[in-house]
Amino acid sequence: MRRFALLLVLVGTPVCAEGPEVELGAESLFYRTAETPLNRGNLLALDAGEDLLRASLSVKQRFGEARAVIRGYAERSLGSTDDTRWRARQAYVQYGFGSGLQLRFGKQRIAWGSGFAWNPTNRLEPPKNPVNTGLEQEGAWAARMDVIPAAWAGVILVAARGTTNVGDLPFPTVESERTSGAIRVRFLVRDTDLAIVYLGGRNQKTLVGLDAARDAFGSVSLHAEAALHRGSEIDPLRQDETFFRIAAGALHAEGTTSLSVEYFFNGEGLSAAANSRYLAALETTFTAAQDPLLAPDERSEALARYLGLAAVPFSGGMGLRRHYLQGSLSRSEIGGEWTLALRAAIGIGDAGIALTPGVSWSPRPDTTLTLDGVVLLGPRDSEYRLAPVKGAVQARVKVAF
């Protein structure tokens, strides 16, 4: 907190401040787990029902042209003997020099890109939860500068340190730290938002991206977000190849109803043949890890190899296969007090489905209760069914003061 205060003094913050905006919340993420090819013999030591319980806090404080934001939670697994875990989703200070320059330091959402479920040009912050992309994302530690010389142009410069950890899951994932630098240049050309992104760093694939969005006709808007990068994030044997990703879709919003659809092509995803080899490798390494005829060091090596393979679907955060389709429908009822929503992500190549129905209730403007269900469907060897999760119920309550 002393660092925050010192920074605000250095940028000339007025001493008078408005009252803070405070939001308290509670979250319960309950998962039904299963033994799958990614959790043979329950090596992850999961209970049949894993419940992550959280108490969350959000504080926003303005000081003239400056503001400080802290969003985080305390978490404990129900029935676990582990200590309570504390996690910051965001913790930053920001100062604006008029409308043309903004500086932000601390843990923050980068939040650029027009894609709904996938953002190929944004690899700076931890990836979204693969079974429910609507959950709140964690930010990355970063220094950010937004330069906006005119309404039709802008430049964003970011230096960031983040991880590849996928949050809000009942089991740990392989996590690596990456340090990145990025520049995003945006233009407004004939009512079309265009942005060019260049990104690279340590443990970070060098990436060049293009983002475009515009209102097409009436209440329909279109978007496309694409990126080229060298080296695979899910297969270390392909470091000399160049891969292409694109997320393209449409949004129709009219009155209290919105409907969206998005297609995602993941160029580094596994083909059907490569996926079969991947599943076979999982089986082979697990069998070797349990073979009493092998020496202990050989079994340990096989187990480490198995756990590394099992973590592959949750390492890159963009999907294991090549073709995906996502759709969502939401509708507000009774003056906006109730909102009904349905999201579905489909793996076109393997017919796997992650279905997320949800309902939100706002009995007062300062109170919101949200309930989401997660149902994973499809063949047993489809990507969504590979996850050691049968389904989930995710409840969140937030009260603002």
Question: What would you note in describing this structure?
Answer:
The chain has 401 residues and is mainly beta. It has a single domain (23-400), classed as Beta Barrel (Porin). 11% of the residues lie in helices and 53% in strands. It is built from 4 helices and 18 strands. It has helices at 2-10, 272-289, 296-310, 383-386, and strands at 21-33, 49-63, 66-77, 85-97, 101-108, 140-150, 153-163, 177-189, 192-202, 204-217, 220-230, 242-254, 257-266, 323-333, 338-347, 352-364, 367-377, 389-400. It has an 18-stranded antiparallel barrel. Helix 2 packs antiparallel against helix 3 (296-310). The longest helix has 18 residues, at 272-289. The chain is globular. The two termini are 22 Å apart. 31% of the residues are buried.
Concise summary:
This protein is mainly β and 401 residues long. It has four helices and 18 strands. The protein has a single domain, classed as Porin, CATH 2.40.160.
pLDDT under 50 segments (min length 5)?
A: 1-15
Domain tally: 1
Count of alpha/pi helices: 4
Structural class: mainly beta
Mean pLDDT equals 88
In sequence order, what are the helices and strands, one letter per element?
A: HEEEEEEEEEEEEEHHEEEEHE
Helix content: 10-25%
Approximate shape: globular
How many strand segments? 18
What's the CATH H-level homologous superfamily? Answer: Porin
Instruction: Give the biggest beta sheet.
Output: 18 strands, antiparallel, barrel
CATH architecture: Beta Barrel
